[in-house]
């Protein structure tokens, strides 16, 4: 994969300056969260990520930054915690963060064998946001690898709308946050459905998509960071713990 072109200091500064001017000229109906404003004013990481995601398009980066702040305010991302997400989904082991990829980025694991179409998508996505925010607070705005674990998943677990919503969440709300998107041990039965999934993934997501089996997973996650079910050395069983 080609290395993304990094923005210049001038481009970052232009986004920052024009965003703050826009906010002053057109104050949002509900003020943006102080943590998000501090992230914009005191650091260049977020703006740099957006500029890279949008191919150095300053106008688009400003627009998306504004939309992102509006969404984060309405969604309550800065105040999301273990008490205000669906407790069952938080603790049932479908979604959790554990270990790291070879580049040192945390694995955000979605265990599709534990998924059911009867689950509420909004509540599931909120659990994903909870883990993303938790990781990005622990290590400032670090990337994650989205690890779609298809081990033992069958047609009954397949939920294209849910997968589509996860991809859209990253594309619109956390652009440039995934290091890789790994789809591991895709059953043959689900190959046709996976082609549909690839059809609605943006080009940027397809660039970082990796479909793995036990034979080649160690190209992206080493043996000590791989669960036993993936052919690795880690016999971890998920049990929710607060940070």
UniProtKB/TrEMBL annotation:
Source taxon at top rank: Eukaryota
Name assigned to this protein: GH14688
Boundaries of every CRAL-TRIO domain copy: 82-238
Record-level GO cellular component terms: endomembrane system; endoplasmic reticulum-endosome membrane contact site
Organism ancestry: Eukaryota, Metazoa, Ecdysozoa, Arthropoda, Hexapoda
A Pfam family reported for this protein in Swiss-Prot or TrEMBL: CRAL_TRIO
């Amino acid at each position: 994969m080609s290395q993304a072109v990094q923005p210049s200091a001038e481009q970052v500064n232009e986004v920052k300056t024009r965003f703050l001017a826009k906010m002053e000229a057109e104050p949002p109906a509900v003020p943006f969260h102080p943590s998000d404003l501090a992230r914009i004013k005191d650091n260049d990481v977020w703006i740099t990520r957006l500029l890279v995601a949008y191919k150095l398009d300053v106008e688009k980066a400003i627009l998306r930054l504004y939309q992102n702040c509006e969404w984060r305010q309405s969604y309550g991302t800065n105040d999301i915690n273990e008490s205000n997400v669906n407790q069952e989904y938080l603790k049932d082991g479908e979604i959790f963060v554990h270990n790291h990829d070879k580049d040192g980025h945390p694995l955000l694991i979605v265990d599709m064998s534990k998924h059911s179409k009867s689950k509420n998508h909004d509540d599931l996505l909120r659990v994903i946001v909870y883990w993303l925010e938790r990781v990005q607070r622990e290590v400032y705005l670090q990337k994650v690898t989205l690890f779609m674990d298809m081990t033992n998943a069958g047609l009954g677990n397949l939920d294209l709308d849910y997968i589509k919503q996860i991809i859209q969440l990253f594309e619109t709300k956390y652009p440039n946050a995934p290091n890789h998107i790994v789809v591991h041990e895709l059953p043959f039965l689900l190959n046709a459905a996976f082609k549909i999934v690839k059809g609605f993934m943006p080009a940027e997501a397809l660039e970082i998509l990796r479909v793995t089996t036990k034979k080649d997973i160690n190209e992206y996650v080493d043996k000590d960071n791989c669960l036993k079910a993936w052919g690795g050395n880690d016999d971890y069983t998920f049990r929710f713990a607060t940070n």
